[in-house]
Write a structure and sequence with these properties.
290 residues; Alpha-Beta Plaits; 8 helices
């Protein structure tokens, strides 16, 4: 089984158990913040399910209708995750406002232990999912990891709110829910924004760009930097570039130069899926700036 799918299945099952536990403890212990925290964890179940579907689609090979492959299924999934997080945060914000004005009871001690337990479990989930996400260069897994981290942060807010309510500041339980909502909204917006940039082909990956330039300089290939474009498809990057060759060079020789540098780039730069190279004939190759 694919490692990304495996870690997603494990975290999804863990979230189901954790969500039921937190909502139950929140209801019994009379804590608005804990109930909100449990609902947030329940949303993790649905988002992880989206990630599982996206990972399965993204693994499909390129075909006639999708010549670049299906990698952007991960970007679409991450965008959906961001929107879900923002939607959940608005609902929790409403619950927090209500809790500030209506809560007149101190939550039970069990809600305190539940918050501490949740922080530990969700941080473990974050570390495991982020590790696999970085290893596979998966935007969907990284978005899911950040969702786990947001749940850990929300449990910290819940913990603070419950502590305040237990010392007589009853409104603090509602304030804890508000803190949770704001943290979730911020994380959801950041995930959504990053995936929109990817789907709009925003040129932000300077690391890969610099590597391409470096390889071309080493191989003495004159690259037109202004016409170097990168396009992200899930965990792969596709490049389009223009190189200059002497006008006197034959078509066959020009093709050989382009093919050699293409193979070199794909071999040396790991996320690079393919490179499309256009050749411009010039009378005189300009000297590279030192």
């Amino acid at each position: 089984m694919d490692l990304g799918i495996k870690v997603s299945l494990i975290t999804m099952i863990s979230n189901i158990v954790l969500a039921v536990y937190k909502v139950y403890v929140g209801l019994i212990g009379k804590s608005t913040a804990m109930i909100a925290d449990g609902i947030h964890t329940l949303s993790d179940v649905f988002t992880t399910l989206i990630v599982l579907i996206a990972l399965k689609i993204a693994k499909k090979p390129a075909d006639k209708e999708h010549p670049y492959g299906h990698g952007r299924a991960e970007s679409i999934a991450a965008k959906i995750l961001g929107l879900i997080l923002m939607g959940v945060s608005l609902q929790l914000f409403k619950s927090g406002i209500s809790g500030i004005f209506t809560n007149k009871n101190a939550p039970a001690i069990t809600t305190l232990w539940a918050a501490i337990f949740s922080i530990i479990i969700k941080e473990i989930m974050y570390q495991a999912t982020a590790y696999v996400g970085r290893m596979k260069n998966s935007s969907a897994l990284m978005a899911d990891a950040l969702h786990h981290r947001s749940d850990a942060f929300s449990s910290i807010g819940t913990l603070i709110g419950i502590l305040g309510a237990r010392i007589g500041l009853y409104f603090m339980d509602g304030v804890g829910a508000l803190v949770v909502a704001l943290l979730i909204f911020k994380m959801g917006f950041e995930i959504w924004k990053s995936t929109v940039e990817e789907l709009m082909d925003t040129q932000k990956d300077e690391g890969i760009r610099e590597k391409i330039i470096s390889v071309c300089q080493r191989e003495k290939v004159m690259l037109n930097k202004d016409l170097l474009r990168l396009r992200h498809y899930g965990n792969l990057v596709f490049a389009e570039m223009t190189i200059n060759v002497q006008a006197s060079v034959s078509v066959e020789k020009g093709h050989e130069i382009a093919e050699n540098i293409r193979n070199q780039l794909i071999t040396e730069i790991n996320p690079l899926g393919d490179v499309i190279i256009h050749i411009d004939p010039v009378i005189k190759i300009p000297m590279e700036d030192s």
